[in-house]
Amino acid sequence: MHTSLDGFVAGLNGEMDWINLDDALFDFVATMTDKADTALYGRVTYEMMQSYWPNAGEKPNASKHDKEHSAWYNKVSKIVLSKTISEKGLDNTIVISDQLTDNINKIKKQDGKNILIFGSPSASHSLMSHRLIDEFWLFVNPILLGQGMPLFKDVTETTKLKLIETKTFPCGVIALHYETKRN
After folding, report:
1. What is the CA radius of gyration of the chain?
2. What is the rounded CA–CA span in Å between residue 25 and residue 69?
């Protein structure tokens, strides 16, 4: 999840034009997607992803990242947290609208690779409130937004984290990898 230094994942109107990206960061994310066979999204992010990634790699001006991520996106299983959309007509996609803890834990117990969540702050807030996130990858951008959508919202319990690794990118972003410590 990209975040500003002061802890916002989007501006007040959902803007994310402040996020710094470069080829090194894209290449790093590709190493993460190689280790994942499931992508989890909230409805808004899923609809945004669906409008771009299925055909992004086929465009004449597609970048290396667009080609690679589009291919991954098209083959990966998708989970969408939403109370308003239906699975009907969706390819390789499961919609979870209730019983979040039971449904996510059932999926986590299945054989396979990692589950990645991209963006999706509202879905992340729901997952955090149910203590369903095992690891955090935070991409801290060198900017103070002052206001916007917070990374952590309505956190009511202390969650201890263990720093696993850090990585700095030429664009100024610092990646922080934390593991959730379970009692």
Report:
1. 16
2. 13
- Nearest Cα to 136, choosing from 21, 2, 38? 2
Between helix 64-75 and helix 43-56 the angle, nearest 10°, is: 120
Distance, in Å, from the CA atom of 174 to the CA atom of 179, rounded to the nearest integer, reads 17
In this structure, are residues 67 and 57 in contact, taking their beta carbons and an 8 Å threshold?
yes
Nearest to 131 by CA among 159, 162, 106: 159
Predicted TM-score (pTM) of the model is: 0.89
pLDDT at 139 over 80: yes
Residues in a beta bridge with 175: 139, 167
Q: Which band of pLDDT confidence, cut at 50, 70 and 90, is reported for residue 74?
A: very high
Report H helices in 77-181.
Answer: 100-108, 121-129
Of 149, 157, 101, nearest in space to 122 by CA: 149
Mean pLDDT over each residue of the chain, to the nearest integer: 92
Domains observed in the chain:
2-180 (3.40.430.10)
